[in-house]
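Researcher: Structure prediction, please.
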Amino acid sequence: MLRSYRPEDGPWIAERHGALYQQEFGWDLAFADLVASIVADMERQFDPAREHCWIAARGDER
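Model: Predicted structure follows.
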């Protein structure tokens, strides 16, 4: 099921991206910091009339 983004998803998105790119490509945690910055910018500038962010979820699992 797809659901709308919630503010508590931001840290999870950054952590999961960081872990995946570290595992797959050997990138350091600076990438997770970059993703966190992008998510924070999205939250500050979000225009619901023009944008949306979906999270795939099953029950409590994202």
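Model: Helices lie at 9-25, 30-45.
Researcher: Thanks, that helps.
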